[in-house]
Specification:
By secondary structure, the protein is α/β, with parallel strands linked by helices. It has ten helices and seven strands. The longest helix is centred in the middle third of the chain and has 14 residues.
Length: 272
């Protein structure tokens, strides 16, 4: 192991200092009316938002973040890729960006769960959450009898975890067919963090309970054709919590096609 890697491991693994993540300023006007921070989903990068950013108003600041283990951010093999670890790195990264406004966090899938954790930890630094296709599941309970939708979807994720080589083969095909964002990259370099994030952040999560406790305004957008989102959890949240709204789109899980335009239009309405 090189000296630089040893220092990095000591700093981040043993001293528990969060990583600073790679960011990209899509738009940076001199006097922005608002600041949006985009957090991508599992297996993607900040460029999964390219199509949405093109439709955003030009007088807002737009920042993309590569989560730990993806894109150009660090990919430590020893890391636990749970929402807590990701949120700590996102929080440190945002502090270094010197933003004039509290940002509106826009998270997709895994990024939505990370956004919830960021708001939970650094609530005063967040203006609003926009959660796209959040895979909220109830805590797993071992019991006999009928299995819940939460349990069945967990089994789907666990099946994906067992056959990583198939994920590598199928991801390019999914992109070609328009079923996944063009930035989806599952290869030898990213498969480890992909599987780790799948296990720690999606299969084993507390996000559904955490989001109930937040006070910031929260907008949830989800697709009527999304196979991994449980509609009932989202509609229940919107009924029970005054600060949460839910918008159902004719879309799937990935932000492609009509989802792109609908999301960009929705974000434009949040600018004061």
């Amino acid at each position: 192991m090189s000296f630089r890697r040893r220092v990095s491991t000591l700093t981040h693994r043993y001293l528990r200092i969060p990583y600073t993540l790679y960011t990209h300023e899509f738009q940076s006007p001199k006097k922005p009316r608002a600041t949006f921070v985009f957090i991508h989903g599992i297996g993607n990068t900040l460029h999964s938002w390219d199509a949405v950013v093109k439709l955003m108003p030009k007088d807002v600041r737009v920042i993309g973040i590569d989560l730990l283990g993806f894109g150009k951010s660090p990919k430590p093999q020893w890391a636990v890729y749970d929402a807590k670890t990701q949120a700590r790195s996102v929080g440190v990264t945002l502090l270094g960006l010197r933003m004039a406004h509290q940002p509106i966090l826009v998270g997709h899938s895994l990024g939505a769960l990370v956004a919830v954790e960021v708001a939970k930890r650094y609530g005063l630094g967040v203006r609003r959450l926009v959660l796209c296709s959040p895979p909220f599941y109830k805590p797993e309970v071992v019991k006999k009898g009928l299995r819940s939708s939460d349990d069945m979807l967990r089994e789907l994720y666990r099946a994906a975890k067992k056959f990583p080589e198939q994920l590598e083969k199928l991801s390019p095909m999914a992109v070609k067919l328009g079923l996944a964002n063009k930035s989806l990259t599952i290869n030898e370099e990213t498969i480890g963090s992909y599987i780790a994030a799948l296990e720690a952040s999606i299969i084993n999560q507390t996000s559904l309970e955490d989001v109930r406790k937040l006070k910031v305004p929260i907008d949830i957008l989800y697709g009527a054709l999304d196979p991994v989102v449980i509609n009932k959890h989202i509609t229940t949240l919107a009924k029970e919590k005054d600060n949460i709204s839910a918008t159902r789109l004719m879309a799937g899980h990935e932000i492609v096609g009509r989802y792109v335009k609908s999301l960009a239009q929705y974000l434009s309405t949040l600018i004061n």
